[in-house]
Design a protein that fits this description.
Layout: H1 2-30, E1 32-33, E2 40-41, H2 43-47, H3 53-72, H4 76-94, H5 98-106, H6 108-128, H7 134-154
Length: 155
């Protein structure tokens, strides 16, 4: 019973973290709509307009998603993929003129939040799939066989 409560608490914590990351990603990557278009950009693209310093600040902001992934205990391969997205966004943003447009389009935080969400949902789905309790079946079978044998011997 306590294990079920811990799992429910972990799920609630993960869901809360995902909601925070969704808000964060929306703010940094798509909080500002460009009038007369469907295109949205975020605070990170605006900050990235300041050469080098803005891109470095964007990289620091992006590390928040990686920190949440670390807290969630995601595997190293996924963290490396997230780090790669951050570096692509950072390096792409360093390019003069084109880098600012790249920053607005690439949206590393949204990508990384999606990766984390997919991983956590897969993990949650795998946890729900309870393997068949073979050991319990074997143990109960032995127990029932002993009980049956004892009853037969008594009669």
């Amino acid at each position: 019973m306590a294990e079920h409560a811990d799992t429910a608490r972990d799920r609630a914590r993960q869901e809360a973290a995902l909601q925070r990351l969704e808000r964060f990603s929306r703010f940094t990557d798509s909080s500002i709509g460009i009038p007369f278009t469907r295109f949205r950009l975020g605070a990170e693209a605006i900050i990235g307009l300041v050469p080098v310093v803005g891109d470095a600040a964007g990289l620091v902001l992006s590390s928040y998603v990686l920190l949440e992934a670390q807290r969630a205990g995601v595997p190293g391969a996924l963290k490396r993929k997230m780090l790669r997205n951050m570096l692509v966004d950072f390096i792409g943003g360093l390019l003069p003129v084109v880098g600012d447009a790249f920053d607005a389009i690439y949206k590393a935080n949204t990508r990384n939040t999606r990766l984390l969400r997919e991983h956590l949902h897969r993990q949650l789905h795998e946890e729900r799939k309870d393997p068949f309790p073979w050991a319990t079946l074997a143990g109960l079978s032995v127990l029932f066989a002993l009980i049956t044998a004892a009853v037969v011997m008594v009669l």
